[in-house]
């Protein structure tokens, strides 16, 4: 996990349309980065839909929102189209950004250990510093909590 007030690690990742998004180019307004395990799975779908439903409120507060997973650009495009998502989805196929943000962790399911993305959200302030973190996110009510934090900046 990154410390509050520390600079957010810069990155450039492709979105669902194949366009590069660079974090440092977004300075000047808040940025929400939510890391999620996999496209089109139940929890990830609910989380992405919740952020999409509040997109106009985030935009009114000057914030940009991006979901990040290790899924491919093609997978993101299919997921966004199928679920009518309005949030940006970024592909970190090599996992570099997941590691930089400390979300690539050992997980345990039914006694089996494996590596995966721990559902985590970061709020980056207009200066490019970490303003808030939400580790081990539970989806219900999460988008609303992040929106409240954005409005409080």
From TrEMBL:
Biological processes per GO annotation: cell redox homeostasis; cellular response to oxidative stress
PROSITE patterns: THIOREDOXIN_2
Occurrences of domain Thioredoxin (ranges): 2-153
Cellular component terms per the entry's GO annotation: cytoplasm
Enzyme class: oxidoreductase
Protein EC: 1.11.1.24
Active site: 44
InterPro entries on file: AhpC/TSA, Peroxiredoxin_AhpC-typ, Peroxiredoxin_BCP/PrxQ, Thioredoxin-like_sf, Thioredoxin_domain
Pfam families reported in the protein's UniProt record: AhpC-TSA
Taxonomy, superkingdom: Bacteria
The UniProt record lists the keyword Chloroplast: no
Gene Ontology molecular function, alphabetical: thioredoxin peroxidase activity
Key words of the record: Antioxidant, Disulfide bond, Oxidoreductase, Peroxidase, Redox-active center
Catalysed reactions listed for this entry: a hydroperoxide + [thioredoxin]-dithiol = an alcohol + [thioredoxin]-disulfide + H2O
Assembly, per entry: Monomer.
Classification via NCBIfam families: PRK09437.1 (NF006960)
Family membership: Belongs to the peroxiredoxin family. BCP/PrxQ subfamily.
Function per UniProt: Thiol-specific peroxidase that catalyzes the reduction of hydrogen peroxide and organic hydroperoxides to water and alcohols, respectively. Plays a role in cell protection against oxidative stress by detoxifying peroxides and as sensor of hydrogen peroxide-mediated signaling events.
Protein known as: thioredoxin-dependent peroxiredoxin
Lineage: Bacteria, Pseudomonadati, Pseudomonadota, Alphaproteobacteria, Rhodobacterales
